Each structure stands twice: as structure tokens, then as C-alpha cells.
Amino acid sequence: MERAVSSEANEKLILAVPKGRILGEAAPLLVAAGIEPERAFADPDARQLRFTTNHPDLDIIRVRSFDVATFVAFGAAHLGIAGGDVLMEFDYPEIYAPIDLGIGKCRLAVAEPIEMAGHDDPRRWSHVRIATKYPEITRRHFAARGVQAECVKLSGAMELAPSLGLSHRIVDLVDSGRTLRDNGLVEIEHIADITSRFIVNRAALKTQPERIGRWVDRFREISRAA
User: Fold this and answer.
1) 11 with 95, same domain?
2) Are residues 85 and 139 in the same domain?
3) Are residues 96 and 122 in the same domain?
4) What region does 18 belong to: left with phi over 0, alpha with psi -120 to 50, or beta?
5) pLDDT one-digit tens code per residue, 151-205
6) pLDDT in tens, 13-56
């Protein structure tokens, strides 16, 4: 499906960045790229979501991590910083993700209660019920070995699902593993290593190759120097 970039967006390039932890890790990259957002961008109490920068033709929008890819895919933003988990889940063909920024490192994993892990054999599964905010990734992962995955979609608090009987297993991002341990869970399968990538809208890159290409080149140089 072709998704057009709006005429308003064509007046300025829009860079979409995620709220939260990844934004903290991305901030030094923005500095290295010579991007200085207006003062309100650093104000945690600011309610605005769109910010000007020191570049007259570049604005920044700050949105939920899952929404960065959607804004870029549909042409509302031309550029973005998105986690590999989000890109895997939505798999938008309109997105080109040329640069691994090496930030937001974590892993996507299957976990279950520690008391189950000692005698549970994933190789014998034929059907599993999984609580996750990544139903597409989860289904593909299990389908690859012939296992049917019934996904219960949650937006957060996945670790509560086993103890409350919603599902015995979860698929979620894991960093240190502390949250799993604190909730009596243990990793039993690794799905993918995750980092964040610099992404662009393919249609915008075709119509504005020089403007967008300059930012791609700049972030590529930064990632190589890191």
C-alpha cells in the first residue's frame, strides 16, 4: 500500500524519536549529529510533542517507541530512531533501516515461571499460550518450528501474566533480567538480540535524496565512530 508524505511534512524534515530510556541513549547521538532541539525538549514537564531545532528545515517529534515506526512508515515523519523489536513486529515495507546505532541493547526472549523451567521441554510443545506485546514476532518464532502460538496481547506488565493465570509464558524484552527474577520468571528461549536503528521513509528518500541522504550519511559516520 502506498503511503504519501504530506505536503506540510515536505516543508520541513521531521525526525521521530522515542520517549523513555532509548531517548536518553540517543541524546548524545543527536548532539554528535549537530542537532540541538529547542529548550523545551529537555524539560520533562513540557507537554508539547513537536520541537524545533537549530536547523530551520528540521523538527523533532517525541512519541511512544512503538509509534516511531508508524509515523515514519505513513510519511508523517521522514526520519526516526526505532528499536529493532518494533521494526520486526510491524515489518513495514515503507521503512528503510540502514544504520544500527548500537543503542537500546537488549534481547527478546521467552520466559516462564522458574518452577516450570526445570521440567519443561520446549522441543515437545505443539501449542503454547503467550502473553506479549509482540504477537507477530511470537507467532513467527513458534511457527518456524511448527508450534501454534495463541497470543494474549498486552501493552505492559507482562510479568504478571503467569502468576495471575493469564498465560504460563511470556515474550518480552529483557535487559538485565532483574524484572523477570523479581517476578519468579526465567528465560527459556532467546528470540533475537535488539538494538535501535536509524530509519527513513523510502518514498521520502526517493523524492528528497539529497536532504535525507545527508542525515543518513551523518548518522552512519557517528555509528562507525562509536
Assistant:
1) yes
2) no
3) no
4) beta
5) 999 999 999 999 999 999 999 999 999 999 999 999 999 999 999 999 999 999 9
6) 999 999 989 999 999 999 999 999 999 998 878 889 999 999 99
Q: Which residues pair with 201 in a beta bridge?
A: 95
What's the pTM value of the predicted model, to 2 decimals?
Answer: 0.91
In angstroms, the CA 107 to CA 173 distance is 6
User: Do residues 13 and 78 make contact, with C-beta atoms less than 8 angstroms apart?
Assistant: yes
Strand order in the sheet with 79-83: 50-52, 58-63, 13-18, 79-83, 196-201, 95-100
Q: Are residues 70 and 84 in the same domain?
A: yes
Q: Please, are residues 170 and 161 in contact by the beta-carbon 8 Å criterion?
A: yes
- Residue type (1 letter), 32: A
Together in a domain, 100 and 203: yes
For 86-116, the pLDDT digits (tens) are 999 999 999 999 999 999 999 999 999 999 9
Q: In terms of domains, do 17 and 96 share one?
A: yes
CA distance 112 to 96: 34
Say how far apart CA 114 and CA 103 lie, in whole Å: 30
In this structure, what CATH number is given to the domain that contains residue 12?
3.40.190.10
Tally of CA atoms within 13 A in the half-sphere of 30 that contains its CB:
25
Count of other CB atoms within 10 angstroms of residue 47: 6
- Whether 210 is in a domain gets the answer yes
The answer to whether 46 and 40 are in contact (CB under 8 A) is yes
